[in-house]
Amino acid sequence: SSGINAEYGHHLQECLKLAAGGLQDGSDEVRNAALYALGQFAEHLQPEISKYSGEILPILCSKISHEMGSENSALTRTYYALESLCENMGEKIVPFLPSLIEK
């Protein structure tokens, strides 16, 4: 995780909003791209993205519930994004553990 360049840091929230909007799209390809983007953000934009974990984790947990049993790659992409985000959360993950475990 390399973090984000200071001059671009103020755009992270905008990018997260775009990705979250993509998760609601009617196209599987757009939803998968949004999930992949969230995973890439979580993997490469630490520690800045951790500030948004409280907003991102519930969305990903909801996606897991929604995609269970589906035959598309959305579930795999969701787990990728979730793993990438949780990997660097440390103790911040504790409040989310009950919800994550039941998924």
CA-atom Rg in angstroms: 13 Å
Shape: globular
Helix content, binned percent = 55-70%
Number of strands: 0
Query: What can be said about the biggest beta sheet?
Result: none
Low-confidence stretches: none
Tell me the number of helical segments per DSSP (H or I, 4 or more residues long). Answer: 5
Order of helices and strands: HHHHH
Beta fraction:
under 5%
How is this structure best described in words?
There is one protein chain. The chain has 103 residues and is mainly alpha-helical. The chain is 60% helix and 0% strand. It is built from five helices and no strands. The longest helix has 17 residues, at 28-44. The protein is globular, with a radius of gyration of 13 Å.
Short structural summary:
The chain has 103 residues and is mainly α. It is built from 5 helices and no strands.
Which secondary structure elements does this structure contain, and how are they paired or packed?
Layout: H1 12-22, H2 28-44, H3 53-67, H4 74-86, H5 97-102
Characteristic terms for this protein:
single chain, 103 residues, mainly alpha
